[in-house]
């Protein structure tokens, strides 16, 4: 996937301050939020389906 030198070169870029995060950090943040929302939605659907079956 990535060679060791490519990964090491990504870590060498360390400015004194960062205004913007790299695009892959932003993508992973959004992906994590979407996965959490889907998990909560799926859990809610399972709970409501179980409640409807037993009544």
Automatic annotation (TrEMBL):
User: Where are the membrane-spanning stretches?
Assistant: 30-48
What GO CC terms are in its UniProt record?
Answer: plasma membrane
Name the UniProt key words of this record, in alphabetical order. Answer: Cell membrane, Disulfide bond, Membrane, Transmembrane, Transmembrane helix
Q: One matching Pfam family, short form?
A: Pannexin_like
Q: What is the name of this protein?
A: LRRC8 pannexin-like TM region domain-containing protein
Intracellular or extracellular location(s): Cell membrane
Q: Which InterPro entries match?
A: LRRC8_Pannexin-like (IPR021040)
Q: Give the principal location in a single coarse category.
A: membrane
Keyword Mitochondrion part of the UniProt annotation: no
